[in-house]
Amino acid sequence: MKSKKKPATLAQKVNVLRASVMGANDGILSVAGIVVGVAGATTNSFAIFISGIAGMIAGTVSMAMGEYVSVNTQKDAQRKAIETQTTALDDHYDEEFAFVRDKYAATGIAPELAEQATREMMKQDPLKTTVREHFGFNVGEYTNPFSAAIASMISFPTGSILPLLSISLLPKNLRIIGTFVAVIVALSITGYVAAILGNANRRNGTLRNVVAGILTMLVTYFIGRLVA
């Protein structure tokens, strides 16, 4: 009898969504930098377009492989943390109990309540409790590296399409400034969403993303002008 696949937790879904947003953001930024740089060096539309396509393909593979390796590395670190805690519970249970209790008490919980809460949780699942309190993740809740890689593999070229179409379809006298504007709008959106997912300041996160995009395009454009 086939076992039912365990549904993804909210944290796992958020991690895959994060990979999607960052993939789209990198796609916008990377390909925008490439096509604007080439446009600074030449007015040949085919050369600009093919350079953007090459950047899209290379970036898609790079992002997918990078996400796969990154998530697997994180999983390896988490497994090592679990092994460490398993040994610590076997050899120093009282110290682990005290660590959890003191951590709860430090948040302002009354000592007797901290003691009671720790006792109940350690009785139920000491490994999950101590791993969570020491390392900040839940045992068994791992991001699927394939899901993260596929999310990046789809989102990177999706983000790349915007600067590629802007630089290719706009009139020659408008395509650079038009691409700048389109990329700034897109980066504002991805920066805002990334800040929400990362629980960061949304204004600062969006501004940083936009500034990074503007600087990238300016640098590559002027380098293109220099070698033209």
From TrEMBL:
GO terms for biological process: intracellular manganese ion homeostasis. One of its GO terms (cellular component) is endomembrane system. It is a multi-pass membrane protein. It is found in: Endomembrane system. The keyword NAD does not apply. Pfam families: VIT1. The chain crosses the membrane at residues 21-40, 46-69, 146-170, 176-197, 209-227. Keywords: Membrane, Transmembrane, Transmembrane helix. GO terms for molecular function: manganese ion transmembrane transporter activity. It comes from the Bacteria. CDD domains: Nodulin-21_like_1 (cd02432). This is VIT family protein. It comes from Candidatus Levilactobacillus faecigallinarum.
